[in-house]
Amino acid sequence: MKIKFNPLFKDELTIQEIQVHMENGEITSKELVMYYLFQIANYDQDGPKINSILEINPDAIFIAEALDHERKTKGVRGPLHGIPVFLKDNIETNDSMHTSAGTLALATNMSHNDAFLVEKLRKAGAVILGKTNMTELSNGMSSEMWAGYSARGGQVRNPYGDADLFVGGSSSGSAVAVAANFTVLSVGTETDASILSPATQNSVVGIKPTVGLISRKGIIPFTYSQDTAGPFARTVTDAAILLGALTGIDSSDPATYKSEGRAQSDYSSCLDPNGLKGARIGVFNPIPNDSDEYDEQLFRDVIRTLDKEGAMVIEKIDIPSFHREWSWGVSLYELKHSLDNYLSKLPPQLPVHSISELIQFNKGIREKALKYGQDKLEKREQFPNTLRNAEYLNAKLEDVYFSQEQGIDFALKKYGLDAILFPAYIGSTICAKAGYPSIAIPAGYMKSGRPFGVTFAGSAFSEGVLIKLGYAFEQATMHRKSPILS
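Given the sequence above, the corresponding structure tokens read:
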């Protein structure tokens, strides 16, 4: 006998719709969690085997029941009360789930602490539903590794196409879980394109915040300079709600100190359907027409929409440093330093406590762990862990100077812009090196059915402006379509 679910669940419910239904007694958080588990069983782990989910929280139903009871007896904590959320597998939780970053070496790693952002989610009343699959070590393993693959979890598939359709990464599972309606929300992380790429490839909204808006504490690191967590959702409204819940000053993360007085705990005031009217948006488009991720007609449609909605569109803007030959010294040296430090603090019973030990562990189970090799790890093994050498320091200084003063800030000031529009996620690198925010928005589908998206980018702590622009564009177009899972 099949389980019968509330017919309301057939639709992709938003946070606001769920809260209304819960207040009216039409659905419960427990029922919602059970429905998503059913979807995961039948479409993620069976059927088309999307494979976006790496681990399920065994306490999820209990947590949802407790929050349902609290709603009846004490009231609602806020908009996330009883709302299911998935976390990327590099975000620590103090529960019965593991935190492995997709590696087999850390498959038994259980944290004794919640990441700061997880503490925030629990206090807001969210139900942590589980962990999502990801590109192993946030794409720090191999130059040959396909986006969305991990030795522990296998390959994440794009729900909009066949197995060969690019899924984007490294927060692949987090984006796909939202796109395929296995959850309402998810949290990913980005160093460079890891939120923006899978968001555009899977037709969801992704926000890569200013570095420091969300605490990095409790996240398996890639760099110090560029790492940040950020939300995925099917609508800008839901992404904005989740973003506000994740912000806050963390005494354990100095990067968050600069957000004091600049971060918001509620971005709902930015959700203006007329937000494009009078906005000055610069268009940067250096993509060749033969790129698989670019569609000239769809991008021109975006520009026409901006113009129609009252924006002042300045095309072919100049960003002086965009095409410079960037040094990758920051990611090379900082991954060695940050990951070695993280591994060194792990409990003694775990098999690895350094990058060198991780490399040797993988070699010992080569057939399981090294489908794509580990050349990126091996390259970093010999790097020093002092962050004092000239190559690294000069790379760090150049990244900041050329991405900010001679990059994003230069263009914003020169043209008097509120934001810069990029097709797909081509602006990810310069924004990542600057530590500046971007928002990815669905912008239609190619003739093949492949999703197309655009990103709006701005200066530090301009998330409110970007949400305003993204929301107005979304409401004017309503491009997103649900994938067909069978």
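The radius of gyration is 21 Å. Try to locate this feature in the token string yourself.
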